[in-house]
Prior knowledge:
By secondary structure, this protein is mainly beta. The protein has one domain (4-52). Helix content is 0%, strand content 74%. It contains no helices and four strands. The chain has strands spanning 4-12, 19-29, 32-42, 45-52. Strands 1-2-3-4 form a four-stranded antiparallel beta sheet, with no helix packed on it. It is elongated and about 35 Å long. The relative contact order is 0.30.
Amino acid sequence: MCGDSEGSVTLRDPIYGYRREFSVRSGIHRGERHSFAFAEVSNGVFVVFERVG
Protein backbone atom coordinates (compact mmCIF):
# COMPACT_ATOMS: atom_id res chain seq x y z
CA MET A 1 0.00 0.00 0.00
CA CYS A 2 1.37 3.38 -0.96
CA GLY A 3 -0.36 5.78 1.36
CA ASP A 4 0.26 9.19 2.77
CA SER A 5 2.87 9.73 5.47
CA GLU A 6 1.20 10.57 8.77
CA GLY A 7 4.40 11.21 10.75
CA SER A 8 5.44 8.99 13.63
CA VAL A 9 4.13 7.54 16.87
CA THR A 10 5.86 6.07 19.93
CA LEU A 11 4.79 2.48 20.61
CA ARG A 12 6.14 -0.45 22.62
CA ASP A 13 8.07 -2.85 20.42
CA PRO A 14 6.46 -6.28 21.09
CA ILE A 15 9.64 -8.21 20.26
CA TYR A 16 12.18 -6.45 22.52
CA GLY A 17 9.82 -4.51 24.81
CA TYR A 18 11.39 -1.09 24.19
CA ARG A 19 9.46 2.06 23.37
CA ARG A 20 10.48 3.32 19.94
CA GLU A 21 9.37 5.60 17.14
CA PHE A 22 7.28 3.98 14.41
CA SER A 23 6.63 5.65 11.05
CA VAL A 24 2.93 5.86 10.17
CA ARG A 25 1.39 5.68 6.69
CA SER A 26 -2.29 5.55 5.83
CA GLY A 27 -4.60 5.36 2.86
CA ILE A 28 -7.93 4.10 1.55
CA HIS A 29 -8.22 0.53 0.25
CA ARG A 30 -11.55 -0.90 -0.95
CA GLY A 31 -13.42 1.91 0.76
CA GLU A 32 -11.79 1.44 4.18
CA ARG A 33 -9.06 3.51 5.80
CA HIS A 34 -5.94 1.51 6.64
CA SER A 35 -3.11 2.79 8.81
CA PHE A 36 0.26 1.09 9.28
CA ALA A 37 2.93 1.84 11.87
CA PHE A 38 6.28 0.23 11.15
CA ALA A 39 9.87 0.26 12.40
CA GLU A 40 13.04 -1.75 11.88
CA VAL A 41 13.79 -3.26 15.32
CA SER A 42 16.86 -5.27 14.35
CA ASN A 43 18.97 -5.74 11.24
CA GLY A 44 16.28 -6.49 8.64
CA VAL A 45 13.56 -7.30 11.22
CA PHE A 46 10.50 -5.06 11.07
CA VAL A 47 7.50 -4.72 13.39
CA VAL A 48 4.26 -3.64 11.72
CA PHE A 49 0.98 -2.61 13.36
CA GLU A 50 -2.16 -2.32 11.23
CA ARG A 51 -5.39 -0.49 11.99
CA VAL A 52 -8.47 -0.72 9.77
CA GLY A 53 -11.40 1.63 10.08
